[in-house]
Design goal:
- The chain has four helices and six strands.
- The protein is of the alpha+beta class.
- The strands form two sheets. Strands 1-6-2-3 form a four-stranded antiparallel sheet.
- The radius of gyration is 21 Å and the shape is elongated.
C-alpha cells in the first residue's frame, strides 16, 4: 500500500475527497485515518534486538528484499563429522544484514469481518 493509496482511502473515509477540505472536522478525520493506517503497517515490524519466538514463521527485511524464514536456532552435524555448527537467530540477523522482521501471521489479512 502506497502513501497515495492511504490518502485516497482517507479521503473516501473522511469525505475530504468530496471537496470538504475547509471543514476542520473532516480534515481531522482524514488525518486520523491516514495516521492509523500508517501505524498499522509499521506496528507489525520488530527491530532485530527483539527476537521472535522459536519455530515461528517470520518475514525478514534487509533494506531491499523480504524473505520468509523459520525462526530457529540451528545445530547441525556437517558431513557426518562430530563437528557441530550452532547458529542463533540473532546471529543470522547479523550475518544477513536484517534490519526488521515480522510474524507472517501479523501480515495476513484480517478475515473476521468477512463472515
Amino acid at each position: 500500500m502506497t502513501k497515495e493509496d492511504i490518502e485516497k482511502a482517507a479521503g473516501d473515509y473522511s469525505g475530504s475527497i468530496l471537496g470538504f477540505t475547509d471543514n476542520k472536522s473532516v480534515m481531522e478525520k482524514h488525518k486520523a485515518f491516514a495516521d492509523g493506517a500508517q501505524w498499522r503497517i509499521n506496528s507489525v515490524w520488530h527491530d532485530v534486538e527483539e527476537l521472535p519466538k522459536q519455530g515461528s514463521l517470520i518475514a525478514v527485511f534487509d533494506g531491499n528484499d523480504m524473505h520468509l524464514w523459520r525462526a530457529e536456532d540451528i545445530e547441525n552435524v556437517i558431513d557426518g563429522r562430530i563437528r557441530v555448527i550452532s547458529i542463533t537467530v540473532k546471529e543470522c540477523f547479523i550475518m544477513q544484514h536484517i534490519i526488521k522482521w515480522a510474524y507472517v501471521k501479523d501480515l495476513m489479512p484480517n478475515m473476521e469481518e468477512r463472515k
